[in-house]
Amino acid sequence: MSETREAEPKVGAGVDDDLGPAALLALARDRKAAEDRAAADVLALAARWADLHPPESIHSAATFSFGGGLGREHEEPIAGIGCPAVAEFCVAELGSVLGISTVSAKRLIGHALELRHRLPRLWAQVHAGAVPSWRARLVAEATIHATPSLTPEAAGWVDAQVAAVAAKIGPAQLDRLVAETLRRFELAAADPATDPEDGYLAVDPRHVTVTKDDVHYAGTLHVEADLDLADALDLDRALAHGAQVQKALGSELSLNARRAVALGDLARTQTALELFAQGKSGSEDQDGLPAAREVVLHAHFAASTTGDVTVFGPTGRLEEGQRLVLLEQLQSWCGDSRTRVTIKPVIDLNTDRSTPAYAIPHRIREHVVLRDRTCVFPWCSRPARGSDVDHVIAHDHTAAAEGRPQAGPTSTDNLAALCRFHHRLKTHTAWHYRMLDAGVFVWTSPHGHRYRRDATGTSALDPPDPPPPRIPHQRRP
Prior knowledge:
The protein is α+β, with helices and mostly antiparallel strands and 477 residues long. The chain folds into four domains: 29-203, no CATH class; 209-276, no CATH class; 299-334, no CATH class; 354-460, no CATH class. It is 36% helix and 14% strand. It has 13 helices and 19 strands. β10 (315-318) and β11 (323-326) form a beta hairpin. α8 crosses α9. The longest helix is centred in the N-terminal third of the chain and has 31 residues, at 21-51.
């Protein structure tokens, strides 16, 4: 007698083709529930990681002076008032094992502490499976960054209000709830010209936000703003006028595109009448308009030379935003008569450069910036151009005087781009790294986790060796 069993769905390699609609839906529901449970567990682990690294755990690191600042580790407040602080450098290792940046890991730990200490009802709902962690983190983000800061009592009131509707609360409801909390707890003064009972809160909403971290494939950035009514109407008229002028000059772009171009023209030329009337002291261009502000973009294109003709490839790389840029876009930007174009000498990244001095000359620094592109710490994406250039093997300042060979030369095969935080981290903790090849690095964390960082990104290498088995009743060191 043979037994028939239902085939289990394949996990990881796709879904069994024999599954019917009902089985597919049930599997999707189960996988989503497992994902939510795992996300709740990660929040709890992040909070526990913070518990293991209080400010008291900070060791006496040597002082690292760079640009006048102190580089030693300090306690890091990353959640609201009343939450415990953590040792600053502990954040990086948690982020590395999760495959996220140090900034994202800091945000995760902050959300976990905010939920556990200031939003306990919501914390309990997350771990009961009633609210997904991503929604709870939205609430934590709002209470952490409320302006003015929420007191523990105010955060507790938000927690009580959210608890009843946590599974469906959205950003707009959150904004209204935080505003009501500020008014209720008198954390912001109400407008005396309005009825204090009508819910109005005199928090200045004006802002202009340019989202630099999300560059569209077409080479655009998102801009969002709240302006005074009069300023907004003036801007609207200026953009409408600029769009009409472009159309009269033969532009075939859409109205929205012409308005966007007009906004860029305003940013470059500062055509406000008062500025134009005041500044005739050598700051104007030949056309009489005020001089444009300088905006520097670094675009890199591959080129081939045939005879006296240089041909550029159709696509290149723009350092700002780490995105592709089309040659046509670059030509349109440079076609503006008010654009100044500077072409820098080509640097061959296959040729190592060095100097006997400790200070890094501009040409060697530029070589490292072009090669590394970003900070080379695992999963960090901060641009190399704004980062420090670090000696992978420390420079021996006394080697020449004592007649010893230089162990840490100032050479491109011993230099790497590190943002200021990760430069300090490498200097003051057990994190260390080595260069395998030009632009290829292997990092080792204090707990033995290893990561490879190269031009393609970060990949985790072999996990650390497991600890020795613990003998029963043996005291831990």
